[in-house]
Amino acid sequence: MRFHSPLSLKRTRHTSIDSMEAQAAKAKLEATKEKYGREIRVFETLRTSERPAETVNTEEPDDFYEFTAEDYFHVMATKKEEKFLKTRKLREAEEAARRSKMTKAVIRVRFPDNHTLEAIFHPSEAVQSLVDLLKEVVTRPELPFYIYTTPPKKQISNTSQNFYSAGFVPGAIVYFTYDIPRG
Questions:
Q1: What SS3 class is residue 159?
Q2: Of 14, 169, 172, 175, most Cβ neighbours within 10 A?
Q3: What's the rounded Cα separation, in Å, for the pair 32 and 133?
Q4: What Rg, from alpha-carbon coordinates, does the chain have?
Q5: Is the backbone of residue 29 left (phi > 0), alpha (psi -120 to 50) or beta?
Q6: Which DSSP state fits 126?
Q7: Which helix (H) or strand (E) element contains residue 174?
């Protein structure tokens, strides 16, 4: 007969609860995928302090900053494209052509616990569809929350606009936080 210390039982209990919670969360995510019919992924992001140390010497040599002939030709090529004025109708047609090329918006929502939810939306969908998805997948949907972008920190309050109008196409990183008053 083998005896376990209370500490080891406590660890085992926490581990089994965590795995049960993880299984429940996976099941909830799968159900949400089926309900909304979209591709959803969840992954954990590393904090900057957990990333491997990068090289210390990041300073560029002086010749890097010299203006070369290649740089000149690149600048001139972009100016040739902007050479003539365009009518509003032509600008709108070009904008419509750019919009039609965009077929999906990949939205990543970063949570305070360093988890990231990635979902694919159509650019013409309203941002409200992202909010509805978040209400389905968060553990405490009864708490008020808001989403925002950075920099600068801008709370997304107009959820009726589409992803293209919001500037979230072809992709965006949106941050999630609970809107709990500090008291």
A1: coil
A2: 169
A3: 8
A4: 24
A5: alpha
A6: B
A7: strand 171-178
- Give the model's confidence band at 10: pLDDT under 50 very low, under 70 low, under 90 confident, else very high: very low
pLDDT tens digit sequence for 72-118? 888 887 776 666 788 899 888 988 888 888 888 899 999 888 889 99
Sheet holding 40-44, edge to edge: 40-44, 115-121, 105-110, 171-178, 145-149, 154-155
Question: Considering only CA atoms, which of 108, 132, 125, 130 is closest in space to residue 42?
Answer: 108
d(CA 81, CA 11): 65
Alpha-carbon distance 87 to 76, whole Å? 23
**Of 15-24, 35-44, 165-174, minimum mean pLDDT range:** 15-24
Distance CA 164, CA 104 (A): 10
pLDDT at 53 over 90: no
Kindly provide the residue ranges of all beta strands, DSSP E only, lying in the chain, ordered along the sequence: 40-44, 105-110, 115-121, 145-149, 154-155, 171-178
Q: How far apart are alpha carbons 10 and 34 in whole angstroms? A: 36
